[in-house]
């Protein structure tokens, strides 16, 4: 890390139509702060959270570490608040940002399009040089979409959450993923 007094900024940005992604974002903020506290690093990081409905996307340039949350709607479509600002993404300065994604979807109802918006966001951000963190195993999910996963199908490109079909797993997934993300940040920032 740069030195003991350096403050790293974490920005959590989400778009959410019926509050599921919003609630997940709040839980992630809580778990990230808990993990930082357990590692005695709370003073080295600031964690802020923003709804893309009311926040210009340009704001994401201000943060070292980004956690971006998006739900998928209407057979593989991007959540509406992200969609409204989608055209801005190419104009942002995001090279060298440390980015993790999380997505909300419904694998039982929309298995062919499960978490497609998270995959689309990943592809859109890959025009920049990004330090990706928070890839997540596909084990334990049942779906056929290809956009949110790596070529070998072993990993999602971010945390996969499904409050429609696997609500009972959400909290433990968030807890484990937040610990994973913090330890990946520390490796990159070392
Ligand atoms: C009409 C409708 C269409 C949906 N389409 C998809 C889809 O294509 N893929 C997917 O993974 N989930 C789909 N979902 C599930 C939502 O993504 C899921 O309920 C999510 O938790 C909503 O999050 P939000 O309230 O934060 O927007 C759909 C849900 C509804 C009601």
TrEMBL record:
Every Flavodoxin-like domain range: 10-182
Protein name, entry field: Flavodoxin
Domain of life per record: Bacteria
Keyword Signal attributed: no
Function (record text): Low-potential electron donor to a number of redox enzymes.
Keywords: Electron transport, Flavoprotein, FMN, Transport
PROSITE patterns, A to Z: FLAVODOXIN, FLAVODOXIN_LIKE
Cofactor(s) demanded: FMN
Pfam families: Flavodoxin_1 (PF00258)
């Amino acid at each position: 890390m740069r030195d003991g007094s350096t403050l790293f900024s974490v920005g959590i940005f989400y778009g959410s139509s019926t509050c599921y992604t919003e609630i997940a974002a709040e839980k992630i903020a809580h778990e990230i702060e808990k993990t930082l506290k357990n590692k005695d690093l709370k003073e080295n990081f600031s964690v802020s959270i923003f709804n893309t409905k009311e926040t210009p996307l340009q704001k994401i340039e201000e943060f070292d570490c980004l956690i971006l949350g998006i739900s998928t709607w209407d057979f593989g479509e991007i959540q509406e608040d992200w969609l409204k600002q989608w055209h801005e993404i190419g104009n942002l300065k995001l090279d060298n940002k440390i980015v993790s994604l999380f997505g909300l979807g419904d694998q039982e109802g929309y298995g062919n399009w499960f978490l497609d918006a998270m995959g689309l966001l990943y592809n859109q951000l890959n025009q920049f040089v990004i330090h990706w963190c928070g890839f997540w195993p596909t084990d334990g999910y049942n779906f056929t979409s290809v956009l949110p996963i790596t070529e070998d199908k072993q990993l999602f490109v971010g945390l996969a959450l499904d409050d429609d079909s696997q609500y009972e797993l959400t909290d433990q997934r968030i807890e484990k993923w937040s610990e994973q993300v913090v330890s990946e940040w520390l490796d990159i920032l070392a």
